[in-house]
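Same chain as my last thread, 326 residues:
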Amino acid sequence: MKCDSLSLPKYIDKSEKIFFIYGDEIVLQNNARDYICNFYKKNGFDEKKIITSKDFPNISQIITQNAGGSLFGSRIIVEIIHEGGKIPKDIMDVLSFKNIDNLVFIIRSSISKISKKASWIKQMDQSAVIIECNKLKSFQEKAWLKDQLSFISEGHMKEYTERILDLFPGNLVAQQNEINLLKLSYEKDSKISITSFEDQGEFSPYELEDKIIELKKNHALRIIKSIHKNDDHYAQLLVWIIGKVINVSVIALQNPNREKGLSNAGIWQSKISSYKHFVKNISLKKIMPLQKKVYELDLASKGLGGITKKQFWQELDNIVIALTTP
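reply #2:
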């Protein structure tokens, strides 16, 4: 079955615990994921496992290993990250694992559009809730914002809604950041001004790739800090993203035709220009040693190696600083 992100509450308990989230509005994707996680957390699903593309060939094995639960009766939410392009067979095989009592599947895809006629969509539609997270129309945006501001008293609701819409029309990321600030500062029956507070913004891990290749050091560090504070279970995913930037850059630097090298490395056409600019500001001598550091952080994110949790996050910052400092 299909629904838009705002209609998810009507469909969440009608599924076989498989959800496919897609669309170019990252805030709505995050909201949908969080709603699903919170819904099932109330039913005892308090563990989470993240699967990225490098683990796709092992999806069936990973699911089988977790499907039986454990001696402690673990209930697990499995989040599968699909970066775009054709949906691989490994992900479609997940549909055959429906109706497993102790597993919930969330498939998050960066694709922005789907064809209702595609065979894989028809197959997905039979077993999963397909959640569209694309740009909202103005009336939908206002309804979404009011829902996010439900913690504010009715007497102040209109004022805050109109002010945020005036400041950030059509920008759900900025609106969500402002909402997070208000949650920290708002007291019922009191008024505060909508202004700058300590940064409490929330970000998607995938935004880190863009900010690194755009050489926006402060923004990249801000993303890591936010995820460290709010979503540290994404540690392994952050390492994978930084590793991808490094490996792709090495390929580009070693290829006389950088554009062809980037394309062969699987970089989308829309990002090739940014990557070409990025690799102009680095060298193999500078970037090669970072591959070893990423490998060590990958082990640490899996609980292996001798890097402490504090050192892990500091090393992430250090690598980002090295990559974004020309």
